[in-house]
Amino acid sequence: MRNAGRVVGLIALVSLIFFISGCAKKGVQQVDETAPPQQQEGATTGTPDMELDMPGEDVTSSEQALQGEMAKFEEDRIYFEFDKFNLTADARKVLAEKASFLNAHPNIKVRVEGHCDDRGTREYNLALGERRAKSAQDYLIFLGINPDRVSTVSYGEEKPLETGTGEAVWAKNRRAEFRILGN
């Protein structure tokens, strides 16, 4: 009887060892990614004079694409009515596009620059330009952009887009522009 207990215990122990080893995970084989892949004998890779796409080319093209997006971001302005700082429907649409760009590029910071036409005093136009820049900033923040990423400045009437008189010229100068500060 005593031997039978040992035999049962031994069988249980051996079964447990087989069970545990059967459930063990197989080891992951380490692959040296810097070494060229091994080819099977007789395998072909295409024509020898065919050029391969290099990763550096993708970086360059993606950098060029980003530069293009950044240029468009800065070119798109919003415009204001005479003596107003509230956003038009067109301005909100442009700001929504800018918010999408900023959400896609979370490291980019932007400065909103408020501008005015030359009617009114210098001090009044500086204050109005600041309110215009602040309106754009507030809307970008409303659209989910971190306030730390958007600063404002007012140039008042000091940096006109066009010089001259008349409503067409003045309308182009009542604007907010956007400058990318870093990425």
Question: Secondary-structure blueprint of this entry?
Answer:
Blueprint: H1 2-23, H2 55-75, E1 78-79, H3 89-104, E2 109-115, H4 122-142, E3 150-156, H5 167-173, E4 175-182
Structural commentary:
Strands 1-4-2-3 form a 4-stranded mixed sheet. The longest helix has 22 residues, at 2-23. 48% of the residues lie in helices and 13% in strands. Helix 4 (122-142) links the parallel strand 2 (109-115) and strand 3. By secondary structure, it is α+β, with helices and mostly antiparallel strands. It is built from 5 helices and 4 strands; from the N terminus they run ααβαβαβαβ. It has a domain at 73-182: OmpA-like domain (60s Ribosomal Protein L30, Chain: A, 2-Layer Sandwich). It has helices at residues 2-23, 55-75, 89-104, 122-142, 167-173, and strands spanning 78-79, 109-115, 150-156, 175-182.
- Mean pLDDT over the residues: 80
Spans where pLDDT lies below 50 across 5 or more residues? 23-57
C-alpha end-to-end distance? 81 Å
The percentage of residues in β strands lies in 5-15%
The count of strands amounts to 4
The ordered H/E elements are: HHEHEHEHE
Radius of gyration: 33 Å
Computed structural class: alpha+beta
User: CATH-wise, what's the superfamily of one domain?
Assistant: OmpA-like domain
Q: What is the helical fraction, as a range of percent?
A: 40-55%
The first-level CATH class of one domain is given as Alpha Beta
CATH topology term of one domain: 60s Ribosomal Protein L30, Chain: A
What is the CATH architecture descriptor of one domain? 2-Layer Sandwich
Biggest sheet, spatial arrangement of strands: 1-4-2-3
Tally of contiguous helical segments: 5
Most strands sheet: 4 strands, mixed
- Cα shape: elongated
